[in-house]
UniProtKB/TrEMBL annotation:
GO MF: 4-(cytidine 5'-diphospho)-2-C-methyl-D-erythritol kinase activity
Protein name: 4-diphosphocytidyl-2-C-methyl-D-erythritol kinase
Function: Catalyzes the phosphorylation of the position 2 hydroxy group of 4-diphosphocytidyl-2C-methyl-D-erythritol.
Domain GHMP kinase N-terminal: 71-152
Entry-linked Gene3D superfamilies: 3.30.230.10, GHMP kinase, C-terminal domain (3.30.70.890)
Pfam family, one: GHMP_kinases_N
Species lineage: Bacteria, Pseudomonadati, Pseudomonadota, Gammaproteobacteria, Oceanospirillales
Pathway: Isoprenoid biosynthesis; isopentenyl diphosphate biosynthesis via DXP pathway; isopentenyl diphosphate from 1-deoxy-D-xylulose 5-phosphate: step 3/6
EC number from the UniProt entry: 2.7.1.148
Active site, per annotation: K16, D145
Coiled-coil features, chain-numbered ranges: none
C-alpha cells in the first residue's frame, strides 16, 4: 500500500467513462434500467487515510457545497463503521484528506469513486475483511455507480449499473475529455419526459462488437447547450460522446500525442484533459498489488 512514514495511506479514486449508455426501461421505483460499458481512466481524486486514537471521522478539506454528513466519503465511512462496530464492539476513527481533481456533476463518477475508495481502504485499515460483494452492496445504497468502483474492473453493466460482467478485453486507448463548465443534475435528466427509455436490450457480445450511443445525450444537449456546443466542436476532430449524464464528453485516440494534438487545437475557453483508459482501477492497483 502507498504508505508514508507519517502514517497516511494514499489511495486514488479514479474517474470512469460510460463508453455507451443505453436506457432500456424504467422500474416501478422510478429508477432506470440501463446497459452500459464502464472503463476507468487514470485521472483520479487523491484520498489519504490515517487511523485516529479516538472514534471520530474527519475530512479535510470539505467539498464546497457538500455538507460534511452528506459527503459520500463520510456516508461510506459511517456505513462501514456501523458494520465494524457490530463485528468488533469498538473501532478507531479515521482522518481523511481529499484532493478533489475530478469535476463534480461531470458524469465521471467522482463522488461514487471517492465512496468506493473509502469503503475499500477502511475495510483494510479496520481489518473488517468484508468481501467485494458485501462492499458493493453497501456502495449501491450510496449510488448506482459505486459498485463498479468497488469491484475495480472495467465492466458491462446492467440493472441500474450493479449487475457487472468484467470486460478485461477492452482496448485501453487515450481519451481527450472536455469539461463543459456546467453541473448536470442526474435526477433532472432521468426524469425528463423526452428521454428515450426503450433501447433494445443487447447481449455482451454485441455490446463489445458495436459502438453504442449515450441515450442521455440529446436531452442533456437541449437542457445544457454548452454540452451540445462542445459535442459539435469535438466531433469536428473525432467521434465525441457524453459520459453518464454529462457534462463531460470524450473522444478516443490511439496515442497520447494524438489526443494532445487535438486538445491543443480547442479554443482556449474549453477546459479539457488527456487520460489513459485502464481496465483495472488505479485504487485496486495500490490496495491489492502483490507485496
Ligand atoms: C448515469 C450513470 O452515471 C451511469 O453510470 C449512473 O447511472 C448514475 O449514477 P449516480 O450518479 O450514482 O446516480 P444516483 O445518485 O444513484 O441517482 C441520482 C438520481 O438519478 C436517477 N436515476 C439514477 C440511476 C438510474 N439507473 N436511474 C435513475 O432514474 C434517480 O432519480 C436518482 O435519484
Ligand atoms: N466526495 C464527493 N465528491 C463529489 N461529489 C460529492 C461527494 N460527496 C457528495 N457529492 C455530491 O454528489 C454529486 C454528484 O457528484 P459526482 O462528482 O459523483 O457526479 P457525477 O460525476 O456526475 O456522477 P455520475 O457519473 O455518477 O452521475 C455532487 O454534485 C455532490 O453534491
Amino acid at each position: 500500500m502507498a504508505d508514508d512514514p507519517s502514517g497516511w495511506l494514499h489511495v486514488p479514486a479514479p474517474a470512469k467513462l460510460n463508453l455507451f449508455l443505453h436506457i432500456t426501461g424504467q422500474r416501478d421505483d422510478g429508477y432506470h434500467n440501463l446497459q452500459t460499458l464502464f472503463q476507468f481512466i487514470d485521472r483520479c481524486d487523491e484520498l489519504s487515510f490515517r487511523l485516529r486514537d479516538d472514534d471520530q471521522l474527519t475530512l479535510e478539506p470539505q467539498v464546497d457545497g457538500v455538507a460534511f454528513e452528506d459527503n459520500l466519503i463520510i456516508r461510506a465511512a459511517r456505513a462501514l463503521q456501523q458494520i465494524g462496530l457490530q463485528q468488533h464492539g469498538n473501532l478507531p476513527g479515521a482522518d481523511i484528506r481529499l484532493k478533489k481533481i475530478l469535476p463534480m456533476g461531470g458524469g465521471l463518477g467522482g463522488g461514487s469513486s471517492d465512496a468506493a475508495t473509502t469503503l475499500l481502504t477502511l475495510n483494510a485499515l479496520w481489518q473488517l475483511q468484508l468481501s467485494f460483494n458485501e462492499l458493493a452492496d453497501i456502495g449501491l445504497r450510496l449510488g448506482a455507480d459505486v459498485p463498479v468502483f468497488v469491484r475495480g474492473q472495467a465492466a458491462f453493466a446492467e440493472g441500474v449499473g450493479e449487475q457487472l460482467t468484467p470486460t478485461p478485453q477492452l482496448d485501453e486507448p487515450w481519451y481527450l475529455v472536455v469539461v463543459p463548465q456546467v453541473h448536470v443534475n442526474t435526477g433532472k435528466i432521468f426524469s425528463n419526459k423526452c428521454l428515450t427509455r426503450d433501447t433494445e436490450i443487447i447481449n455482451i457480445r454485441t455490446a463489445l462488437r458495436r459502438e453504442g450511443n449515450n441515450d442521455c445525450q440529446a436531452v442533456v444537449s437541449t437542457l445544457y447547450p454548452e454540452v451540445g456546443k462542445a459535442l459539435n466542436l469535438l466531433n469536428n476532430f473525432s467521434h465525441a460522446k457524453l459520459t453518464g449524464t454529462g457534462a463531460c464528453i470524450f473522444s478516443s485516440f490511439g496515442s497520447e500525442a494524438e489526443a494532445i494534438r487535438v486538445s491543443d487545437q480547442l479554443p482556449a475557453e474549453y477546459v479539457s484533459f488527456v487520460a489513459k483508459g485502464v481496465n483495472t482501477s488505479p485504487a485496486h492497483k495500490i490496495l491489492f498489488r502483490p507485496s
